[in-house]
């Protein structure tokens, strides 16, 4: 059985959602970033952490990629063109959505106050909106990769939810509809119901 360390309202949500989609059992330790439980397994103090057979894996994308590959679901097979295209979309999401949201968070509440530059958030919102338009142009069907739900959809939906809570404008109608469909998935709903 897997153990997931981290609170649901962090990138840990991605891991829990993937595990639910895969039908895998897990225990959740809702430890906070920088807590002793987290620092014991990840010197950066970041969550999520997946523990399997006493081994810790960090970084939400690395974890869900591992889980998808191991269980043969939520991903195109490694070494295929379909996987290369999926990886390209995944990296675009991380570079152009997740990184922008993380930078905004850092300048809102993570960095020490004297290191924050709140004025940067306007340019980040502009950049985020531009990236959403490019993402829409890449969509190939009901899911990012066409007819199959993949880990890219988990990352994208998490970013769209994060953007909404961070008050980033979400005006792209196609992606709003997409996000609504993703959030209606039973596995997503099960994790949402567990948030305390």
Automatic annotation (TrEMBL):
InterPro entries: Glutathione-S-Trfase_C-like, Glutathione-S-Trfase_C_sf, Glutathione_S-Trfase, Glutathione_S-Trfase_N, GST_C, Thioredoxin-like_sf. GO terms for molecular function: glutathione transferase activity. Residues 1-75 form the GST N-terminal domain. The keyword Lipoprotein does not apply. It is an enzyme of class 2 (transferase). Residues 79-196 form the GST C-terminal domain. Its EC number is 2.5.1.18. Keywords: Transferase. Transmembrane segments: none annotated. It comes from the Bacteria. Gene3D superfamilies: 1.20.1050.10, Glutaredoxin. This is Glutathione S-transferase GST-4.5.
């Amino acid at each position: 059985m897997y153990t997931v360390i981290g609170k649901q309202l962090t990138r840990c949500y991605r891991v829990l959602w993937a595990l639910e989609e895969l039908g895998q059992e897990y225990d959740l330790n809702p430890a906070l970033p920088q807590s002793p439980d987290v620092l014991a397994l990840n010197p950066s103090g970041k969550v999520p952490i997946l523990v399997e057979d006493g081994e810790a894996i960090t970084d939400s994308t690395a974890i869900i990629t591992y889980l998808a590959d191991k269980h043969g679901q939520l991903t195109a097979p490694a070494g295929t063109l379909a996987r290369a295209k999926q990886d390209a979309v995944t990296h675009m999401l991380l570079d152009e959505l997740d990184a922008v949201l993380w930078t905004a968070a850092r300048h809102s509440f993570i960095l020490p106050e004297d290191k924050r530059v709140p004025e940067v958030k306007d340019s980040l919102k502009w950049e985020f909106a531009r990236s959403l338009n490019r993402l829409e142009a890449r969509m190939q069907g009901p899911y990012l990769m066409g007819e199959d739900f993949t880990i890219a959809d988990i990352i994208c939906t998490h970013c769209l939810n994060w953007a909404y809570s961070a008050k980033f404008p979400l005006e792209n109608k196609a992606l709003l509809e997409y996000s609504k469909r993703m959030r209606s998935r039973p596995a997503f709903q099960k994790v949402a119901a567990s948030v305390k």
